[in-house]
């Protein structure tokens, strides 16, 4: 009798595992859902500089030379505007998220501005 119970539990566990394998989203799907979408805007360098001066220089320096945060003077050579938008929006490591402090358009403008720094 115990063998039948154990066999039944094994079958149920295997069936449950099979159901989970086919219903849970994959890594790519989860990553795509979590990635913020950058709105299409036209770059306004003056506004981007104003946002940077108000929010970024305390960590990245007044010339974006770095400090508590990394040097951003040539960040566009390493990261695209979309990648920068994601980092500014969600935060990363010691960098805080700015999604609740800045509008999406402001973040996109800063990301485009920084992506041109090469």
Would you spell out the secondary-structure blueprint of this structure?
Elements: H1 2-23, H2 27-34, H3 45-55, H4 57-60, H5 81-90, H6 104-115
Helix pairs in contact: 3-6, 5-6
Supply database-style keywords:
about 120 residues, mainly alpha, Cytochrome Bc1 Complex, Chain D, domain 2, 2 domains, about 0% strand
Helix content: 55-70%
CA radius of gyration is 23 Å
Query: Low-confidence spans: pLDDT under 50, at least 5 residues?
Result: none
Number of domains: 2
Share of β-strand residues: under 5%
GO molecular function, one term: heme binding
Protein name: Cytochrome c
Keywords: Electron transport, Heme, Iron, Metal-binding, Transport
GO cellular component, one term: membrane
Q: Quick summary of this structure?
A:
The chain contains 6 helices and no strands. With 118 residues, it is mainly α.
Describe this structure in words.
The protein is mainly α and 118 residues long. The chain has two domains: 2-33; 35-115, Cytochrome Bc1 Complex, Chain D, domain 2 (Orthogonal Bundle). The protein contains six helices and no strands. It has helices at 2-23, 27-34, 45-55, 57-60, 81-90, 104-115. Helix 3 packs across helix 6 (104-115). The termini are far apart. One of its GO terms (cellular component) is membrane.
